[in-house]
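User: Teach me something about this protein's shape.
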Amino acid sequence: MLQSSRVHEGVWEGHWQGDLPALTVLHAGRPLPGLSVQALEEGWALRLPIPVALLSEGVQAFVIRSGPEVVGGFAIGAGAVLDEDLRAEVALLRAELELLKQVVRRLG
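Assistant: First, the predicted structure itself:
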């Protein structure tokens, strides 16, 4: 289970507790390369450099999933000061909804 995460110096960092499944980080429905995993005494350290090309005006949502299951996510806001953090949450929900729609279409 994803215990904590942060973005530091352009790199997303997370801590996974327990058995590590195959993880994919998605932006706009596309997988991002470069996720690295390092074993710790308790869990796993996860790191993903965020491509500069993905940073632009507004909120960029990133979804972390294991197979079809969403196990986490994060958002980065850039440009004009955001009125509320709610925008970031809505962006994450939209990204998760897109993933769910893809799974439903495959099943149907």
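Now, about its shape. The CA atoms of residues 13 and 47 lie 5 Å apart. Residues 86-107 form the longest helix (22 residues). If you'd like, I can walk through any region in more detail.
User: That's plenty for now, thanks!
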